[in-house]
Amino acid sequence: MSAAVCGSKRSFFEDIPSSPSASVSKKLRRCSPSSPSSVRFAPLPSLLDHLQALFPHMDPELLERALLECGNNIDTAIKRLQELHLGAADATGEKMGPVEELGTTAEQGTVTNNGEAADTTAQIPSAPETLPVDGAEWVDLFVGEMMGASSVDDAKARASKLLEVLEKSISEHVAKEAAQSFHKYGFRTGRWKFDARSCAVQENMMLKEQIQVLIQENTVLKRAVAIQHERQKEYQDKNNELEHLKQLVSQYQEQLRTLEVNNYALTMHLRQAQQSNSIPGRFHPDIF
């Protein structure tokens, strides 16, 4: 049984056309003897998807056969495929870009058969040679680094390194803009003092105009207060006159009542006098 498996391993890696040398194929055949790779198992979909995310340019069939030959040990398969990829790059004379190197220099974490990732020590990536020029490129760079991280510690290390590079880039950009602004406003040639004087003169003129406006508004307010005071005085005089008239009316009413009472009393006295002086049967000599 083991002889048949070893023969199948030999036939699989000898059929790879992209192998640059026989040494690379031998490295791919070095699977862990302690792993359950003596019997072929179908590769888990999660492991195959993880390999496709790490090696998007490789043939999916090649990745599946590599997992089968290594007994679904993704750590060993990743190492062997990295060696194969690096060997092919050295043979063709190609060089990976700075962002791609950041994703491949870190050591990938091991994944168990249940799909759980085990933490491994990762190498801190180096800063890219060409920095992004806008926010979208920085976001793409951060996303690429986080996707290439093998563990939480690796992701923290990558994020810390990129944040240092971003902080340095922002500081340099701010210093450059400050130097340009000083040069623009004539700080070095002495024109900055002239601009300061002109600004002070303009500010003084604006303050004078504001003072004139405030004086005019104050005059208007004084006039309005004087008019309001006069109206208030007239209103008070009218109120006093009204109170005086009310008192006169009360006095006249009292006098009228007194006169009415006196008139009634005189009328009664007149009637009584007429009744007492009248003689029946005889007329008054002055009248008749």
UniProtKB/TrEMBL annotation:
Residues 16-37 are annotated as: Disordered. InterPro entries: CUE, UBA-like_sf. SUPFAM superfamilies: UBA-like. It comes from the Eukaryota. The keyword Transcription does not apply. One of its GO terms (molecular function) is ubiquitin binding. The keyword Chaperone does not apply. It holds the Pfam family CUE. PANTHER family: F18B13.13 PROTEIN, UBIQUITIN SYSTEM COMPONENT CUE PROTEIN. This is CUE domain-containing protein.
